[in-house]
Amino acid sequence: MIKKFIQKILGKPSSSHAGTDFGKRVEIPASVHGIDPSLVDERALNVVRTLQDGGYEAYVVGGAVRDLLLGLRPKDFDVATDATPEEVKALFRRAFIIGRRFRIVHVVYGRGREHEVIEVSTFRAHLDNRAAEQVKGNERTSKSELAGMKHAVDSSGRVLRDNVWGPQDEDATRRDFTVNAMYYDPESQYLVDYHGGMKDSNQKILRMIGDPVARYREDPVRIIRAVRFAAKLSPLGFKLESKTAKPLATMLGLLADVPQSRLFDEMLKLLQTGHALASIEQLQKLGLQKGIYPLLDVVVERADTPFVKAALLDTDRRVGESKPVAPSFLLACVLWADVKLGWDQRLANRTPPFPALQESIDEVFDARIGDVSGRGKLAADMREIWMMQPRFDKRIGSTPFSLVEQARFRAGFDFLRLRAEVSEVEVTLADWWQEFSMADDAAREDLIQLVKSEKTPGSLGGAAKSRRAPRRRKPASHSAGASNSGEPSSDH
Ligand code: ATP
Ligand code: MG
């Protein structure tokens, strides 16, 4: 009893492997950490309880604990446990084992767009590269060999398989930043900390656990994660510790071996989690403005152009307001300059407008999105947004009626709105379409008549307003689709 008490105060020494510091287990009570338990999601609480009732250890872990300590409501919850993925799966009605490199369980609550996933990971064992299976040479052979391996690394130390379970202290040491390596038991409200995460959180330091160089080598994606957390937490005053920041630029080359799909996903996390502008600032500050991923290079290069800047700002604002954002929208904005250039060149060569635009889009996809060619839906959505743009000029006959009914109208319209914001088209054009999309059929006819009678294009919006407000009709259900807006009435 006394021993336990002393350990709680001073920390319990952890298991040891040569040369690795697993830290000391320190249990911090609610009176000290001050986490508000009401910020813990009901479903995460349910997962922890179910696991604990099943006789396992279970904690909220990672970024959720970091955010809780900072008084923020976490956007997603991860749970760590000593139960194996199979044991976790057996306890829940809708649980799925996913991942090969890193097997985890998704426990799913609710259905459709409202569904919520709690990620449950089993405590990982200390990673001893010398004991791991070394994978070299031809990638095809490696993949088939890999399937049967629990723990494998390549010749540069990059971890290819990571499915060996171990005790909590080893799991903590495997995590990236000290502030991401704390465990919170919502039942007892104790916080478990092995690496001084709470102290770093109080001092606003982002510190990689262990030797940063070795940790970036194990998983080069941590380079991008460092940028993301530095950006996300910069408004709160967080800074990367110097030993953590220093090797970033020189180790960038390691990203070349990371699968493109993982890099693409990490790029989207930089750009679509509400900190796009801050991430770009960090990339520039840390000397990482080029070389992470080709499309990201383009984003950084163009971040100061009015259109891309407006798109990035808009994305950050929308995420801040908990509105949906779509990668297709942002990428369509980023590559619009190329599409326009190719389109203008073809128009100058007397290619008719629509084929000219089609050809230009094909060319841009070939040049810029070749590496995400598997993402057919993304490309199709981008194309649709672009192809809609010249159609916004046609405001007579039946064209506006059919355009407004298109499933992706809202995304195309938001794109038009951004173009108007940077004076690429008349603001009144965007206003007209906004009114048209909200109006009932009779008012829509009026708006079309108005275009016909207008002599000076550009004064339409004002004229429309000076007549009478078009009758509104209920927003079309399609407008709630996955556009950058997803809402019936644009608030740009
Ligand atoms: P966010 O708030 O953006 O979700 P997060 O810290 O929760 O940030 P996740 O990607 O959700 O990040 O990962 C959850 C936790 O898993 C992290 O906090 C960290 O402890 C661990 N983790 C995730 N990716 C890595 C990695 N590449 N290397 C080491 N630990 C990782
Ligand atoms: Mg998370």
How would you explain this protein's 3D organization?
The protein has 492 residues and is of the alpha+beta class. The protein has four domains: 1-126 and 164-203, Beta Polymerase, domain 2 (2-Layer Sandwich); 128-162, no CATH class; 208-303, cca-adding enzyme, domain 2, CATH 1.10.3090; 328-466, cca-adding enzyme, domain 2, CATH 1.10.3090.10. The protein is 48% helix and 11% strand. The protein has 24 helices and 14 strands. It has helices at 2-10, 30-33, 42-53, 63-69, 85-91, 139-146, 168-174, 197-203, 212-218, 221-233, 242-245, 260-271, 276-285, 294-302, 306-320, 327-334, 336-348, 353-368, 376-391, 399-404, 409-421, 427-438, 441-453, 460-466; strands at 12-13, 24-28, 58-61, 78-81, 95-98, 104-109, 116-122, 133-135, 151-154, 159-162, 183-184, 191-193, 205-206, 239-240. The strands form three sheets. A nine-stranded mixed sheet has the order 1-2-12-11-3-4-7-6-5. A three-stranded mixed sheet has the order 8-9-10, with helices on one face. Strands 13-14 form a two-stranded parallel sheet. Helix 18 packs antiparallel against helix 19 (376-391) and helix 19 packs across helix 21. The model is unreliable at 3-10, 137-141, 458-483 and 485-492 (pLDDT under 50). Bound molecules: adenosine-5'-triphosphate and magnesium ion (MG). The site of adenosine-5'-triphosphate (ATP) has 12 residues, from helix 10.
